[in-house]
Amino acid sequence: MGKAILGLQNLLAKICQANPPLSKSVRQQEMRTHFQAVMQSLKVREAKAPHEWKEAKEALFPQLMPSDYLKLLKEKALITRSFVAGVELAVVVDTKDGYGYVRDEDRARWKVSENELFDAALKNLNEKKGGTKLQGGGDPERFLAFEEGDGYDAVRVLLPWVRQEAAKFLGDPFFAIVPNRDFLIMWSTKNSAKFQNFAKTRGAEDFKSQPYPLSPLTLRVWANGKIEVAP
Length: 231
Fold this sequence. Notes:
Elements: H1 9-16, H2 24-48, H3 53-56, E1 60-66, H4 68-72, E2 80-84, E3 87-95, E4 98-101, H5 104-110, H6 114-127, E5 135-137, E6 143-146, H7 160-170, E7 174-180, E8 183-187, H8 193-209, E9 219-221, E10 227-229
Antiparallel strand pairs: 1-3, 2-3, 3-4, 5-6, 6-8, 7-8, 7-9, 9-10
C-alpha cells in the first residue's frame, strides 16, 4: 500500500518452525490473524505518530535490527548505526500498539540531530529500568541474563549500568550473545569449555528458531562500552 515495508521473518518462525508442525488450515489462520493485527497497528500508528519533538522524544527507544532490513528500504531510509556484523542499532517510537522505526524524514520534521535521537532513546531505556534486574548464577559457571519480554532485552547490553554490573560479576571483558530481540545472555570468559560451548549452541539455536532474530555471534563486551565479535 506504499505505507510500510513488512518483514516476514517472524511469521515464518511462527508457522514454519513450530513444533509440532501446524496443519495447513492453522497456518492459514495464523497468517490471516497476523496481517489483520499488522494492518490495524499501521492504521493506529499512522494516526498517533508524534509530529513534534517534545512529544516524540518521550516515546523513543533504541532497538537492534537485522542489517537485511536496510536492503529493503530505498527512499524510506531509517536512522541507524552499525552494531556488529549483520546487526544495526536503530531508534523506534514506542506506543501501546507496538513500535515503528524512526526514519530520516522523521528526524528532519523534528529538527534534531541523529545524536539527539540516540541520546534520548538510550535515556528512556535507562529510565525504564524500574523492576528489571539481571538474573543468573555464580561459581563455578558465572552468567547473567535479561529476559524481561518487553522487546528491549538484547539492546540493554548498550546500557552503562548493565555492562558495569556484568563486569563486576563476570569480569572485564565478558562474553555475550543477542540471538534475538528478547534475550540477552552474558557469561565469564573464565567459564569452562563445556559452558562456553553450551552458551554458543543455545544462542545459535535461538537465532534460528525464535522470532525477531538478530545474531548467532558471540560478542566480547567491556564495561567501558567497547563491543567486538569474539574470535
